[in-house]
C-alpha cells in the first residue's frame, strides 16, 4: 500500500498543474468554467471519453491544442507506464 500512496503523490502535481492551467486559460468555455466542470472534463479526457468534444470546444483559444496534446500524451505515456510498471513489479514479487 505505501507504494500506491507514493505513486499518487507523485502523479497529483501533474493533475493540479493541468487543472490550474486549464482553469486559467479556458475559463470562458463550458468545460473549464467551474472547478467541478474542470475536474470532470480532465477526468473524462483522461479516460478517453470526450477528447474530440473538448478539443473542439477550446479550439479557438491559443495554446489549446498544445494543452490537450500534452495532457493526453503525458497521461498515457507517463502515468500509464508508471502504473503498469508498479503492477508488474508487484506481480513479480507475489509469484
Secondary structure category: mainly alpha
How do the SSEs run, as a string of H and E? HHHH
Total strands: the figure is 0
The major beta sheet can be summarized as:
none
Question: Roughly what is the average pLDDT, rounded to an integer?
Answer: 85
Beta content comes to: under 5%
Uncertain residue segments: none
Shape: elongated
| CATH class designation | Mainly Alpha
Written account of the structure:
The protein has helices at residues 2-25, 35-47, 51-57, 64-94. It is mainly alpha-helical and 95 residues long. The protein has one domain: Helix Hairpins, CATH 1.10.287. Helix 1 (2-25) crosses helix 2 (35-47) and helix 1 (2-25) runs antiparallel to helix 4 (64-94). The chain starts with a helix and ends with a helix. The mean pLDDT is 85.
Keywords:
95 residues; mainly alpha; Helix Hairpins; 4 helices; elongated
Give the helix/strand layout.
Layout: H1 2-25, H2 35-47, H3 51-57, H4 64-94
Helix pairs in contact: 1-2, 1-4
Give a short synopsis of this structure.
By secondary structure, this protein is mainly α.
